[in-house]
Amino acid sequence: MAPIRLELTARLSQALGLFDHVTVIDPEVASDEQLERLHDPAYVAAVRQFSLNPVGSDPERGLGTDDVPVFAGMHEASARIVGGSMALADAILSGDAEHGVNFTGGLHHAMPAKADGFCIYNDAALAIQRLLDNGVERVAYIDVDVHHGDGVERMFWDEPRVLTASVHQSGRTLFPGTGWPRDIGGEHARGTAVNIALPPGTRDSQWLRAINSAIIPVVQAFDPQVIVSQHGADSHIDDPLAHLAISLDAHRYAMDTIHRLSHQLTDGKWIALGGGGYEVVSVVPLSWSHLIGVAAHHPVPLTTPVPEEWRIAVKELTGREAPTRMGDLDPNDGPIWVQPWEMGYNPHSDVDRAIMATREAVFPLHGLDVWFT
Ligand SMILES: [Zn+2]
Ligand SMILES: [Zn+2]
């Protein structure tokens, strides 16, 4: 979670001219009262204490661990990210903005009383809660980070107003070890948790097929008033922490799909967040610049050369060579082909079986046909 990935993203988006098409805001630090809508007050107090005096650890609350080291100012930094995502919720409800992006957010592993997986406060869940507190009746949360969106799912597990859908590398081989197809929500909210657990090595067309065939129909049936999406870039083939084989081009495809869905279902009301992503030079800044481009209605073509000024800054800041193009795939190979489910199901494919397991678990609860939707 090196801060360099955020700086490089901002600089690349700037160099691509994307900030000319958006309003950049400087958000407030979320108040304790706001954080305590979903976080335990004793947990917030513990984070504050370490923020002032960053020594020692509190393993029970996940603080001062390998994944979440304590550091001076950690409360303010984390609560400001929440302030950003909550400001987007407000802007979307007031109509000041149609779409909003907080690429510093998407900290989906934070639990009510515990930090985990590099996440301290759960800005995604708090933005959703802000929407509910302001009268929104149905929010769909779509999480395409390579890890299961466990914190957001936990906070709304038994909340029928929030659909949480996560496509991730199976917990059998990756942190946090949860997110199974039969985890479908609590007794008052059956079918409002959707989990697709994909095998390591899953590729573009299969990953997008999983999103299109097991998440989109459920979101459509749920008929949300706002969509919140989390775009962790760690599904990428070059990510050092996970084992899916996804390209920047497929990231863009998923962003376009969710963007279109917002115009179809929610009158454009869409909050898009960042998330994980540990290849901080060649993947994260490019992926999230695409996200800003899509949300700003100035999508960056995948064949666009990476701006030279940014490549020089990368060399200076990291000593590494930056990529030269905004996409991974050879444009001569044509667009990614995503086979619609109604064209057939391959029982010999690990990925198709994973998709089918999710469809069988949740589709009937939404009145959807497991075979032909
Ligand atoms: Zn739009
Ligand atoms: Zn992740």
Structure description:
Helix 8 (248-265) links the parallel strand 5 and strand 6. The chain has a single domain (4-21, 89-366), classed as Arginase, Chain A (3-Layer(aba) Sandwich), CATH 3.40.800.20. With 373 residues, it is α/β, with parallel strands linked by helices. It is globular and about 60 Å long. It has a 6-stranded parallel β-sheet, with helices on both faces. Helix content is 37%, strand content 9%. The longest helix is centred in the N-terminal third of the chain and has 21 residues, at 74-94. The protein starts with a helix and ends in an 11-residue tail after the last helix. The model has no long low-confidence stretch (mean pLDDT 97). It contains 11 helices and 6 strands. One zinc ion binds next to loops.
Structural class: alpha/beta
Q: Write the CATH architecture name.
A: 3-Layer(aba) Sandwich
Task: Write down how many β-strands occur, each being a DSSP E stretch of 2 or more residues.
Answer: 6
Q: What share of residues are in beta strands?
A: 5-15%
> What do the pLDDT scores average to?
97
**Helical content band:** 25-40%
What is the helix tally?
Answer: 11
- At the fourth level of CATH, the homologous superfamily is Histone deacetylase domain
Largest sheet: 6 strands, parallel
**Bound small-molecule species:** zinc ion
Distance between the termini: 39 Å
CATH domain class name = Alpha Beta
User: What's the overall geometry?
Assistant: globular
Instruction: Say what the CATH topology is.
Output: Arginase, Chain A
Biggest sheet strand line-up: 1-6-5-2-3-4
